[in-house]
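Suppose a colleague, Dr. K., hands you the sequence of a protein chain of 421 amino acids and asks what its three-dimensional shape might be. Before reaching for any lab equipment, you can write down a predicted structure in token form. Begin with the sequence itself:
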Amino acid sequence: MFHSPRPRVAIIGLGGYAARHHEAVLALEKLEECRLVCTCDPRPDSFRDQTVRWAFGARGIAVFGDYREMLERHVNELDVVIIPTPIPLHEEMHAAVVGHGLTAYLEKPPSLDPQELERMIALDAQAAVPTLVGFNFIAEPARQALKRRLLAGEFGALRSATLLGLWARSSDYYGRNDWAGHLLSSDGRLLLDSCLGNGLSHHVHNLLHWAGLDGLDRWAEALRVRASLLRAHPIEGPDTVFLEAETSSGVPLRLALSHACRGPELHRERLVCELAEIDYMTQRRAEIRWRDGRIEPVTLDPFDAQMVNLRVLFSCILGKTTKPPTTLNDSGPFVRLHALAYISAREIKNWEEAVVIREPAGRPACHVEVVGIEAMAERFLVRREWPRGEPEPAAPDALGELPVVVREMVACAALASAGAG
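The predicted structure, expressed as tokens, is then:
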């Protein structure tokens, strides 16, 4: 139940991606669209510079060391709680927020364990407003307008969709916390941190949205998935993924993603339609290339995903909008596609050292690049040329195998590490 003229917000966390949410809420607060009541962090004293910059004292914001205490103390003063925390904490924090009768904004991915996600979906059915999952780009106006045109048949039938995602990350990226690059948490739960499941997951979710042809607000479901998981960084999980999927809409998908690369970030979603090809490069440019030779540029206006998502969520609370851009249920196709990638691959293959460049060599923090990765990715997307052999397919009836498959991957990674030592 909405009780105040302006939505009252709490944010769990001060550092990492939580900082971006603090900035978005502050901007909206200045526009008198919401009010931050409280926040928390296990180490609040480590963020004194930020709390000064965000004027916590002048704004009267309470700071706690534990989110549970924060919720207990302020439950009657809150409407929305933002959860931009590590993936292993999502289920318990979501349960606490919903259990207090509050609306949740949960950062992506909500979970990478399909069974855990189903528990969260069941709990969310009790919420007055569905949880918003922070897949950032679904609400983008240009994307929504293009999908309307696609559904209206303007481009003819959608024949296929591909994603090229190259996002260079040094070894520092995998040392930023105790779960990055890991397959299991310290207590044995599924983590599956990777370019597919975390870093580039926004764009994978986008591709499933394009292929959801039974409505503007729909995502395609993967029916068969083949995937090759590879690594160049010395981590437990994969840093490179090649994947193809048959989907419920009949639109085949193909993805090539890597953190073991060089150069500026590249996120290219390509839709091959009967009458045109559409390239969508998130927050950079988009264009439609018609079969008759015309090129139609698509304007991508400046887009602040956190502010837009919050505004839509506030609108849901006020009863003006029926649902957030992405709910927990809407996240299901992505989570299941991701799980099937591991079941198909069965193992994470190491790139041969001959094709890996590590700079500066011998340093703990270094850039890692697979030589020719962009060309390999393009060959896979265009010609279906698998870089390390074609994997066996996996279908949804195999989802229950995921925990066993992942534990075998962890055991193999441990043996390889011991052998290298």
